[in-house]
Amino acid sequence: MIQSEASLIDTDPAELADPHALAARLGVRAGTVRLGQTRIAVSSTDPRAVTYLHDLFTPANDIWEHLPDDFSPCSLTAVNLAVSDACFERLVDHYAAQAVRRQAVHLHVAAPGIRYEMADGTWAVVSEPDEIDGTNLVVQSPRGLVFVTTARPYAHLALARHLREFGYRRGESDGWAGLHASCAATPEGNVVVIGRSGAGKSTTALALAAASGCGFVANDRVMVRVEGEQVTACGMPVPIRINGGTMHALGLKDATSWQLTRRQPDFVTSDWQNFCGDSKLNLLPVEWRARTGTALVPSVRLTAIVLPHVTKDSAVLSVRRVGPDEAREVLAEQLMTPDDDVFVEDWLHARTRDRDEIGALAGRTFEALMRLPILVTELGTRNTLVNLSSSIREALGTLRG
């Protein structure tokens, strides 16, 4: 059943080395992806991969955009194929046997793999298998990329994941820095919410975004760039990951019945109900909008930094402005470019600047962020997110005035 849904095909290494010709043979162009200034023509044999790519890259922003009906010229081609297990094994065996050089790589921190370099300059990366997602084969040549998967329940997510990372690396080269943070837009000002794991970043940003006239920009991953005296922020296309504590605090009680794209936690036996639990609901921003009515905002000019702190079994609520020294350490920890603890290496070789240049750009971004007003918030779990949101917006209004 899974195989028929994935439209499995057979192919050979010669076809994978020429993604443009392969896409022409398949005749299944699915539109264009814009990654920074790079336009890539995308084809896929699996319509689920295209749907997920479009949904993940919504709303479009300055780095990532999927244009389903755009057939303008592109500089690269990306092809997504689902093949049989036997075909996949033949392809991997070919690259392993023909490689002139091989090395260990990480597609991301939890996905180690092997990179095989061919004599003609083509290279292939094979990830270690995952029991849910299966394994991935990525072949890169001067003309583009071919992403090969097998028939697994979530294998079709790989196309969007890899194109997202390609865009991330191009974004780094264009001056964007990755920040482990959340972001929300309000009429009084736009805030990036920064803190260590469990500090309340998602809770605070989603509470702000939910109010009338406000909007959601990003959860967990924010891209920031200095433009003159301003700092622009947009969201990296990642799922919103929240646990039951935040859901209940936002007044959402029936999330366990939601039909969602991503794999979900065990709602019965996991710690998903805890504020700081490891098991979290996974839903795309477009799914969050559909179920909560929250507006999605592509990008904003930042007005302030918020450093949240949630205190259990307390009714405390406070918002105070602090100096830059109170934020410097946590911001330095959460600014991920070029030392990212998830996307640990540029295995796609998508960067167009070297590591030192990217580090210098990130350093300038850090100093610009440190010039923004900084608010520290404290919320007790016996208080309400409505009160927190109102207090932050009042403080932002004071800053603007």
Question: Could you give a quick summary of the protein structure above?
Answer:
This protein has 401 residues and is of the alpha+beta class. The chain contains twelve helices and 20 strands.
Task: Explain what the structure shows.
This protein is an alpha+beta fold and 401 residues long. It folds into 2 domains: 2-173, no CATH class; 177-400, no CATH class. It is built from 12 helices and 20 strands. It has helices spanning 2-6, 13-16, 19-26, 47-56, 85-98, 158-173, 201-210, 244-249, 285-292, 325-334, 355-370, 385-400; strands at 29-35, 38-44, 64-67, 76-82, 101-108, 111-117, 123-127, 136-141, 144-149, 177-186, 189-194, 215-218, 221-227, 230-235, 240-242, 281-283, 299-301, 304-311, 317-322, 374-380. Helix 4 (47-56) runs parallel beside helix 6. The longest helix has 16 residues, at 158-173. The chain is globular. The termini are far apart. It comes from Micromonospora echinofusca.
